[in-house]
Amino acid sequence: MAYPDEKTAFIGFFMIAASIQNTRIGSNIIDDLCRYLADIRLSRVWLGWVKGNPQAEHFWHKNNFKEIRITILWL
Ligand SMILES: CC(C)(COP(=O)(O)OP(=O)(O)OC[C@H]1O[C@@H](n2cnc3c(N)ncnc32)[C@H](O)[C@@H]1OP(=O)(O)O)[C@@H](O)C(=O)NCCC(=O)NCCS
User: Fold this and answer.
1) Is ligand 1 within 6 A of the CB of residue 18?
2) What is the pLDDT of residue 60?
3) Ligand 1 pocket, 38 CB below 6 A?
């Protein structure tokens, strides 16, 4: 909550049990969460997914999230 600024919520990691994936539970949770956050005046939700995880990328696009930047980590 309120990270990286006071109007934003940040999702660190989101995971649904494999046995119930692809049953819309993930989309319903994100939909409810975003409505609640908007109700309490958090107008943005940020998160990251790993490039090369098409399952995650498709899921977030389907739930109306848009890329705003690509961060490359050098290990
Ligand atoms: C990504 C994830 C959170 C989606 O949750 P979910 O409840 O399965 O998703 P929903 O049923 O609401 O949405 C389905 C969409 O997710 C994607 N998806 C879900 N399970 C999938 C699977 N096993 N293989 C491929 N795509 C999958 C599909 O793109 C699907 O879209 P479609 O309906 O157009 O085919 C879940 O699959 C998960 O926990 N994955 C592993 C962890 C992960 O990658 N988390 C995201 C990192 S930030």
Assistant:
1) no
2) 97
3) no
Indicate the pTM of the whole model. Answer: 0.89
Nearest CA to ligand 1 atom 24: 55
Per-residue model confidence as pLDDT tens digits over 13-41: 999 999 999 999 999 999 999 999 999 99
- In the structure encoding, which two tokens stand for residue 16, read together? 């649904």
Q: Whole-angstrom distance between the N-terminal and C-terminal Cα of the chain?
A: 28
68 CA from centroid of ligand 1 (Å): 21
Mapping DSSP to helix (H, G, I), strand (E, B) and coil, where does residue 1 land? Answer: coil
Q: Where do the structural domains in the chain lie, given as residue ranges?
A: 8-62
